[in-house]
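can u do me a favor
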């Protein structure tokens, strides 16, 4: 993919001041896209992060605060950005509990941020994509959008919903130069996951490598974490001409998890 492939394209990446979202924004900026990064905070360091991206890759980059649990904020993000050519719905949160014990507020928040936000941003972004005759909607789903695990009812429900939304978006946009796809990562080594390793080592009385292999990556046959760079590279591919006829599908980056 040439360095100029995404020059002149604007990408919005939700939930992108760290982890997978930041990795995707970095990858898109590296191939010339203007990027808008986002989270619900509005700190100096958030705006500094956008400036660092801009300086590193020689592209325009902005940070726009928006709370992805609020429909109006989701739509306002797209409006404030001036629309987009590439929309990456990445924002997400997690909570683990049995169904009968799952807190109602946690359920509502996970559904709102992980699934509903993707609907609202997509609805706001599509008219501009239709007018331009080109667009890419990339939803960061999960291996849990294709399979399930106990104690993750809200997350699994939301990610299955994101996969369904992706398919409908693809069908409605078919033939208009717009594609919609979902990336389904397994465990990705983000700062959030990295921070869990010491506690898991203590809980299971295992060394780092053993707890990663036997506990955290139990369902990931490769026994290796995916990286944010790999997710970013997959997003860049989905924006390329080579992927122009890939739409309405899921791409698993999960070390073989969903092959089981």
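np, heres the sequence
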């Amino acid at each position: 993919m040439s360095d100029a492939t995404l020059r002149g394209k604007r990408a919005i990446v939700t939930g992108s001041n760290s982890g997978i979202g930041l990795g995707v924004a970095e990858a898109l900026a590296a191939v010339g896209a203007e990027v808008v990064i986002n989270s619900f905070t509005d700190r100096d360091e958030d705006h500094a992060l956008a400036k660092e991206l801009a300086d590193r890759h020689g592209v325009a980059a902005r940070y726009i605060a928006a709370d992805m649990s609020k429909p109006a904020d989701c739509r306002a993000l797209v409006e404030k950005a001036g629309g987009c050519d590439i929309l990456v719905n990445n924002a997400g949160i997690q909570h683990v509990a049995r169904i009968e014990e799952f807190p109602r507020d946690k359920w509502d928040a996970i559904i709102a941020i992980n699934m509903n936000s993707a609907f609202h941003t997509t609805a706001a972004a599509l008219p501009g994509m239709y007018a331009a005759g080109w667009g890419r909607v990339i939803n960061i789903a999960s291996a849990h959008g294709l399979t399930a695990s106990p104690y993750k009812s809200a997350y699994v429900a939301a990610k299955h919903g994101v996969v369904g939304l992706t398919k409908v978006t693809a069908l409605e946009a078919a033939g208009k130069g717009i594609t919609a796809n979902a990336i389904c990562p397994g465990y990705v080594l983000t700062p959030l996951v990295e921070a869990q390793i010491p506690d898991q080592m203590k809980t299971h009385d295992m060394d780092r490598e053993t707890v990663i292999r036997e506990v955290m990556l139990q369902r990931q046959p490769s026994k290796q974490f995916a990286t944010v760079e790999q997710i970013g590279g997959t997003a860049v591919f989905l924006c390329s001409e080579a992927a122009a006829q890939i739409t309405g599908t899921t791409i698993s980056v999960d070390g073989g998890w969903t092959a089981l």
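The chain has a mean pLDDT of 96. hope that helps!!
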